[in-house]
Amino acid sequence: MKKSNLTIGILYLLFGIGCMVLALLMGDKLNGLDGLLFGFGGAGIGSGSIVIYKYFYWTSEKHKKEYSDKLENEQIELHDELKEMLRAKAGQYTYILGLVVIAVSMPIFVVFDALEIFMMNNLKFIGFLFAYLIFQIFAGNIIYKFLLKKYQ
């Protein structure tokens, strides 16, 4: 594993600790942004700790051979031409599906807002964007696996 992975892990960890300290010290003065800082802090500490752990795990003497085999298999999987083509196709289909979802949701939100059925505030909109992001991730994976099964 590269030394830069350790550096990135340490930077994530320091960023997370900095966000946590800032949120704890200035919590009431941030007008509700303390929750966001706590989230960034937890994400930074968690992901930084995992990256650091993986660095030390894979660079230990008893795991070096296993790591080189793992890297070799990843390179073979990444450069497999069929899988490369299928990843591109899955990305294209997911993009088109996302455009359809956005195109359909815009008039629905306008109608709901006009009829006062569903008032759109920031929190609901952020929730919708989060759900859309999760939908895009799952749709891309599902389409890729479907195409892989179809062409293998």
Structure description:
This protein has 5 helices and no strands. Helix 1 (3-25) packs antiparallel against helix 2 (34-59) and helix 4 runs antiparallel to helix 5. The chain is mostly helical and 152 residues long. The chain starts with a helix and ends with a helix. Helix content is 84%, strand content 0%. The mean pLDDT is 86.
Cα-atom Rg, whole angstroms? 22 Å
Number of strands: 0
- Helicity level: over 70%
Straight-line distance between termini: 32 Å
Give the amount of beta strand, in percent: under 5%
Summarize the biggest pleated sheet: none
What are the segments in which pLDDT stays under 50 over at least 5 consecutive residues? Answer: none
Question: Which features characterize this protein?
Answer:
152 residues; mainly alpha; 5 helices; flat
Task: List the topology elements.
Blueprint: H1 3-25, H2 34-59, H3 64-78, H4 81-114, H5 122-151
Short description:
84% of the residues lie in helices and 0% in strands. The chain is mainly alpha-helical.
